[in-house]
């Protein structure tokens, strides 16, 4: 059974399918999660805190997927790197927040996950600070993936190129029958 925190994050994510973040109401998220509004505020502090926690969760899930692909020691390095490229494209196509994280292209329908302007860092309550795990920008996320790939397959492999090809495939998919995995294998 999910915790109240997970249920709230799930409800907030589900809300994005039908309305822009600006129209998502805290009372509706709490009701969908089956908890009180006070529980939501105790957990996240504010709507901005909920947004940061939601984006952070999706970023963490995306990076866990990268780690799962790299953990497969049965394949050749080229196959594992192609697998990471395929994961990047698949995750970005199925999750709007991952797509925004990877490309840096945020629509006004999405929560940015960035700290609210004009709120001094020390003014946040404990619940707000818990939600502030830090949300990576696209350059930091790409660097994190590149670093994980380099650690997983060793030096000398063009991990930067693989990540950038995958991100470009998210923005402008290739034509023809092949996928990003075939392109990466060809490069390697």
Structural notes for this entry:
It is a single chain. The protein is built from ten helices and no strands. It has a single domain, classed as Tetracycline Repressor, domain 2. Mean pLDDT is 86; it is low at 116-125 and 127-131. The chain has helices at residues 4-15, 26-33, 37-44, 47-71, 77-94, 96-103, 126-131, 138-153, 159-171, 180-187. Helix content is 65%, strand content 0%. The termini are far apart. The chain is elongated.
Number of domains: 1
As a percent range, the share of strand residues is under 5%
- Biggest beta sheet attributes: none
The structural class is: mainly alpha
Order of helices and strands: HHHHHHHHHH
Radius of gyration: 18 Å
The CATH architecture can be given as Orthogonal Bundle
Low-confidence spans: 116-125, 127-131
* Shape type: elongated
Find the CATH superfamily: Tetracycline Repressor, domain 2
What is the total tally of β strands?
A: 0
Provide a short characterization of the protein structure.
65% of the residues lie in helices and 0% in strands. With 188 residues, it is mostly helical.
Which terms would index this structure?
Tetracycline Repressor, domain 2, 188 residues, mainly alpha, single chain, 0% strand, 10 helices
Strands, helices and their partners?
Elements lengths: L3 H12 L10 H8 L3 H8 L2 H25 L5 H18 L1 H8 L22 H6 L6 H16 L5 H13 L8 H8 L1
